[in-house]
Design goal:
2 domains, 6-stranded antiparallel sheet, about 250 residues, mainly beta
């Protein structure tokens, strides 16, 4: 009897030892699932993330543009096809086809048929009903989130004093304090981010010090490391950044 118990204990311990690596692996990763069409892609810290391989797909869509001064924002409308369920366009998808502006990317979902879109450079053109291709930017690979590296100030804005990011800032959640004195750097401020595969897409940009007068838009050509923000007035005109302004935002590597 004792021999049988000892054998069972050994088998149980062997089972636990075999299971531990799998439990650790499961704890160290994050499988993405849709929630209202939005893909939660990241975890802060040293966590890992994984996502299913999502192939590019086509659908019929329209892009309309709202212009406020020199700032343009886009609205993607998915045109339903009779007898089929409208596709969910994942956040971060790159859109091509029709007369879509190069670099047009889905940055938010309004409902099952409408999405907010922006384009690299900040200018986006309207597109009549056409067959569009959505290329999701998820990855099927498990990757270490090395972008814990804090972004740094590069140029522009208010250059006097100590323009810098707050301690603990990461590309996915950051707070930047502009320099002091006269903002001789003009209406743009440039940051240096850790290298992304293609470029950085930034959103939720808020000047918390001047929320009703200063509106920041990600502008400039696509870069793997440079993020350029332009300060616009409520009328949509580019304006000089404000001294000591605290700007917050989130950026996703693409």
């Amino acid at each position: 009897m004792q021999k049988e118990l000892d054998t069972m204990k050994k088998l149980f311990l062997a089972f636990l030892l075999a299971l531990l690596p799998q439990l650790a692996f499961a704890q160290a990763q994050y499988f993405t699932t849709t929630q209202n069409g939005q893909w939660p892609m990241f975890i802060n810290g040293d966590a890992l993330y994984a996502g299913p391989a999502i192939p590019a797909f086509t659908f019929t869509g329209i892009i309309t543009v709202n212009t406020n001064g020199s700032v343009t924002t886009g609205l993607l409308t998915v045109v339903p096809t009779a007898g089929t369920t409208p596709p969910i366009v994942p956040i971060g998808s790159l859109l091509t086809g029709g007369t879509v502006t190069a670099g047009t990317t889905v940055v938010g979902q309004i409902d099952n048929l409408h999405y907010r879109v922006i384009a690299t450079g900040g200018t986006i053109a309207a597109s009549a009903s056409a067959t569009l291709t959505a290329t999701p930017k998820m990855t099927p690979n498990i990757q270490d989130i090395v972008q814990k590296t804090a972004p740094t100030y590069a140029s522009g804005g208010c250059t006097a004093g100590s323009p810098a990011f707050a301690s603990g800032s990461t590309p996915f959640s950051w707070s930047y304090t502009n320099g002091s004195g006269t903002c001789t750097g003009g209406n743009t401020v440039t940051f240096t981010f850790p290298a992304a595969p293609t470029s950085w897409m930034c959103y939720n940009l808020v000047d918390t010090s001047n929320p009703t007068t200063d509106f920041y838009v990600s502008t400039g050509s696509a870069s793997t490391t440079a993020v350029v923000l332009t300060d616009y007035s409520s009328a949509g005109s580019a304006q000089n950044t404000k001294a000591n302004a605290v700007i917050t935002g989130q950026c996703v590597g693409r």
